[in-house]
Amino acid sequence: MTNAKLITQENRLFANNILIVDDTPDNLRLLSKTLIKEGYLVRCAINGSMALLTIKTKIPDLILLDINMPDIDGFEICQQLKKSDLTKDIPIIFVSALDNIFDKVKAFEVGAVDYISKPFQVPEVLSRVSNQLNLQNLRRQLVQKNQLLQIEIYSRIAAETEIRQLNFDLERRVIERTAQLQTEIDQKQKIQKQLEYLAWNNSLTGLPNRLWLVRKLKKLLADLNQKLGKEFITVILDCNRFKIINDSLGRQVGDQLLTMVTQSLKSEISAQKVQHIHLAHFGEDKFAILLEETSETNKAIALVQKIKQCLASAFIVENREIFLTFNIGIVVCDANYSQPEEIFRDADLAIQKAKKSSSHYYQVFDCTIQNTALEILEIETDLRIALQRQEFYLNYQPIICLNTGKISGFETLVRWHHPQKGSISPDKFISIAEQTNLILPLGIWILQEACRQISFWQNQLFSQQESFTVSVNISAKQFEQEDFITQLDQIIDRTGIELKHLKLEITESLLMNNAAVADRVFNQLKARQIKLAIDDFGTGYSSLNYLNRFPVDTLKIDRSFISRLTEDNQAATIVKAMLDLAHNLGFDVVAEGVETIKQSQQLREWGCEFAQGYFYAKPLNQDLAWQFLADNLQG
Ligand code: C2E
Ligand code: CA
Ligand code: CA
Hints:
This protein is α/β, with parallel strands linked by helices. Helix content is 54%, strand content 18%. The protein has 3 domains: 138 residues, Response regulator (Rossmann fold), CATH 3.40.50; 158 residues, Reverse transcriptase/Diguanylate cyclase domain (Alpha-Beta Plaits); 238 residues, EAL domain (TIM Barrel), CATH 3.20.20. The protein starts with 8 loop residues before the first helix and ends with a helix. The N terminus is likely disordered. The site of ligand C2E has 22 residues, from β14, α13 and β18.
């Protein structure tokens, strides 16, 4: 650093600032000259006090300090400077003529960084100054770096704190959101469960519904067909007359009734303590019971009998006693079944058979029922053709007055002469004709044919037979027709019969099921003096008192009571009671199906007016009937 430096304005700003303190002016001059030449900014002080003052105005970067001075010596100045934070870091180099080792040691003790002995060599001074300034600069840089580092550390700590806070916030938000989502999920699951419940259960009774049953049966059948499961039993309970209750007493009553039936079924089934048993609400008035893992019909029948007992007593709804009856189909489900619908179809066939039977409210499905079903289908097809081909004709069964033994009338009974199958019984085809509405054209034909016959006979024979009647069976389907009376009027007009000779037979169940229609039509019939008989009495549900409201002339006691009359005390009691009540209400009575003289005598004794049955005559064709009539009236 021997080259002189030019102090420009700019350099001045960055040049190191050195204070020289010496009471010897020559020293001051020499030193300042040398240092200024080197490019330093130099200030001078000639004693201690001045030095301290100068330092206060501006802190120098380095001090060259003499020790021996008149006012305050160098050590003292140094010590003072070391005490202040502002000045303690200024590097101080002592420049002194004192040359013993103690002074030097003391100089370092009070805080000097270097020591130059006088007389000094200029290059040594420059070198030492430059060294110390470099050191000082390095120290400053170090301090600065330290500060920067410190700032960085602080900002890192701050950043970390912030991150920690953010993390904490995030975690809290995650927890909150998770909880919120969980609630949403819970709600959705709840709704899902409710929807599922509604889909698989009947909303009124809470029982599993048809959809559930179909799914369950599908599963059971699939298992069965893959030899993973066993045969099982499906029982379907069909409530009779439920629609009538619903229509006449109102839906609310119907609903209450279904709820009560459900309760009874549930408690009866749980009382059975049978495992793998399920109850379902299969249709409006139908229930199903699944007996898994058994194919023993005995078990199903035992259950059905228990159920019948528990449903037999009256249900009390809105202070009203309501009795319900059921028909029940039992199907043993084996590997022959592949679809639930096949089970339902067969259960339905069994129910239909039970409905027709007078002795069995339940029926176990078997192949013969299926054959019957096929036969039904065949009959339906043939019936349509038969109507066109006029394969029907009428038979006439005499009705005898028990007192006189004389004929009092005929009941017309339709016959079907099938070209291949021969004579088909009305028991086989009337109900099919009713189901398919073919009874409507057939019924018109029967009425017309019967009236044609009356008109023929009335001209020949009835002139003295005022009360002679020809009875015609009328099915409920015909009766419900809006224009039934109009059609009847047309036939009467056409055939010109005297109306007093015509009697219509309708069944007791028709009255029960269509009381309103019956009221209307009966009054119109009465206005025409057409007579009315209640057919098959005792097989329905009506009481005699109930019949009182209808303008009925005759009661026909069903064959099933008459056939047991002489052997069965109970049947005898019933028939006697029926007779008494019918007479009290002003009806006359025809006993149906009289086959023996004993029956005939008994009935006559009890005051029964009329009888009909094989004992007197079977249903006869037109010619034989004519013959019977002529013989009987003459004889
Ligand atoms: P229903 O009206 O009760 O007719 C009486 C049935 O009992 C007749 O059977 C008759 O032949 C039968 N019968 C008469 N006396 C005796 C007897 O002493 N013993 C026995 N075992 N049976 C006797 P059918 O002719 O087979 O008719 C059966 C049912 O078909 C009738 O029962 C009736 O419900 C219906 N039906 C018959 N003809 C007609 C018709 O023209 N129109 C309608 N709608 N139904 C008819
Ligand atoms: Ca009849
Ligand atoms: Ca009858």
